[in-house]
Amino acid sequence: MIDYRLLQALSAVVEQGGFEKAGLVLHLTQSAISRRIKQLESVLGQPVLLRSSPPVPTAAGQRLLNHLQQVRQMETALGLTDDPQDLVVRLATNADSLATWLPEALVLPEQQAVRFDLVVEDQSVGLKRMKQGDVMACICASPQPVNGGAVMALGALRYRAVASPAFIQRYQLHQQFEKRISQAPCLVFNQDDQLQHQYLQHVAQAVPQRFHLCPSSEGFLKATLAGLGFGLLPELQMQSQLESGELVDLTPGYSLDTELYWHYWQSESPLMYQLRQNVLQVAGRFLSGSE
């Protein structure tokens, strides 16, 4: 069994950004903090910190920090602690959810001292964070739960292929559409993003010939408005631009729906249960096909 004083030292080093500051918070000397970290690593047989500036937890260190936060959440719910420190929830999410519906879901109905540590991953690969024990919950496109976890369907984020009027004119997409759209530059979020590839395969039996990597949901929208490329954007994110004519739907009636799921650990604290219910309620108002 791990001594929780060692985990508290690890948490303090990461949160405070160094051994000396961690010592001040825990009323210990810097050398005492260092000894506790070394003792923890000796127990585990592997490092828990990268000695960078500031120190960064290893994968094993992050799993321990998540475990400590779960314990703190349970203690708070049971009234076993008067410690006013914030509870930390580490959550993996896709960028488009973060740019649209998710922030409202993170505002919990009860006043609680909660800090979110949001990890942004493409919805196609976000589940790896759960498998690694790196996060407490995950929003992604996979319906398969990890070992020790459970999953809840949230609904679908609907995407449409859009471009600016100037882009359509520049690449003459109003004629010979299938040929020209496959040659026109598109925007891709990152190497894991396959939405544009799916779209071109569906409408033109082609793959992107030219694309710009744009790993920002807000930047993706602005780049599309500026005419840098065409791309698939969530309806939730660009509805006003469609209505105003700043963006044009390239294939009216066509959409790509990305099903989203909430993954969580079965050993769920009351705080994580409350968060899950809030996420389900807000997703039900914004995502397609949800109830």
Automatic annotation (TrEMBL):
InterPro entries per record: ArgP (IPR017685), LTTR (IPR050176), LysR_HTH_N (IPR000847), LysR_subst-bd (IPR005119), WH-like_DNA-bd_sf (IPR036388), WH_DNA-bd_sf (IPR036390)
Gene Ontology molecular-function annotations: DNA binding; DNA-binding transcription factor activity
Keywords: DNA-binding, Transcription, Transcription regulation
Isomerase is among the record's keywords: no
The keyword Chloroplast is assigned to this record: no
Family: Belongs to the LysR transcriptional regulatory family.
Name of the protein this chain belongs to: LysR family transcriptional regulator ArgP
